[in-house]
Amino acid sequence: MKDSSFAEDNIIVEGSDLFIVLDQRKKWLTKAVSGKQFHCHKGFIDYDEIIGKPYGLRVTTNKSATLSIYKPLPSDYLAKLPHSSQIIYSKDAGMILMNTGVVPGSKVIETGTGSGALTSILANYVRNTGHVFTYEIREEAFNTATKNIERLGLESYVTIKNQDASLGFDETDVDAVVLDLGDPCEVISHAYTSLKYSGIIAVFLPTYNQVEKVYTKLREFHFGEIKALELIEREMQLKVNAIRPNTRMIGHTGFLIFARKLYYGEEE
Ligand SMILES: C[S@@+](CC[C@H](N)C(=O)[O-])C[C@H]1O[C@@H](n2cnc3c(N)ncnc32)[C@H](O)[C@@H]1O
Fold first, then answer.
1. Which one of 21, 76, 194, 240 has the largest count of C-beta atoms within 10 Å of its C-beta?
2. 182 in ligand 1 pocket by Cβ < 6 Å?
3. How far apart are CA 75 and CA 97, in angstroms?
4. CATH 3.40.50.150 intervals, the chain
5. Buried b (16+ CB within 10 A) or exposed e, 54-77
6. CATH number of the domain located at residue range(s) 4-72 in this protein
């Protein structure tokens, strides 16, 4: 049987992104550059040693430390790229993807862009025929997000606007609008205008009182199928004979509200 580990798209080439892991704490995102070396406090490896070999490779540094070389996942990129704001957590992003029904070809509006974490996750799903239009009011965040999206090679699927979303969106007939910004209530009317019928609005909110405000606003616009939820994640300590939830965990990230735009007939 052919070993799929040697599939062409799984081979490290010049310029490939690498996720290098020493242990649970020390992990790096880097690129394979011929003629150069990767250095850490446990020694170095020559990139030429790994170019031409498959991802998943184990290599030994000149100081006898073992490194694992992985193909980076979206979560690896997001953890390592510069942030100018709190980024969305994977658990919340996953739920947003499931409940917005975003698929390749979807047209999505998002605001605020922040560091571009959620933008990148959405863009990764809508490509190659869909598009994410994202609005960010702060220039610093706009610049960071632009760089992060380019670093991920997703710029063809994203339009970033350094614009105040409370002034409205330029796009119409979108499949989904995703909101993660200080005051989502002030953009819900714009989201309503831009969404196609049956299109989904998803709102990420850190507090209960915001959930109530957004729920009230969504009812004003007669959205259907409104639901609100919170996801709790408990990572496990993986130690033989002592497997249990970690002592420290993410206590709270935020709440999510989803709703769908209804069509009430021509006289609406
Ligand atoms: C928590 S961050 C979003 C993080 C983003 N979801 C991510 O995963 O990287 C909220 C962002 O909304 C932006 N923002 C706040 N009000 C805005 C508005 N009216 N229009 C556009 N962006 C806004 C803030 O500047 C901030 O960068």
1. 194
2. yes
3. 14
4. 76-260
5. bbeeebebeeebebebeebebebb
6. 3.10.330.20
Q: Whose CA is nearest to atom 26 of ligand 1?
A: 114
Q: Over range 36-40, report the average pLDDT.
A: 97
Taking the CA of residue 145 as reference, the ligand 1 atom at the shortest distance is 9
- Dump pLDDT digits (tens) for 190-243: 999 999 999 999 999 999 999 999 999 999 999 999 999 999 999 999 999 999
Would you say the pTM of this structure is higher than 0.85?
yes
Atom of ligand 1 minimally distant from the CA of 112: 12
Element (H, E) at 59: strand 57-60
The answer, yes or no, to whether any atom of ligand 1 lies below 6 A from the CB of 151, is no
**CB of 86 sitting under 6 A from ligand 1:** yes
158, 131 in Cβ contact below 8 A? Answer: yes
Nearest to 260 by CA among 230, 216, 228, 226: 226
> What pLDDT is stored for residue 79 in this prediction?
85
The answer, yes or no, to whether the previous bond of 112 is cis (omega within 30 of 0) is: yes
The CATH superfamily assigned to 76-260 is Vaccinia Virus protein VP39 (3.40.50.150)
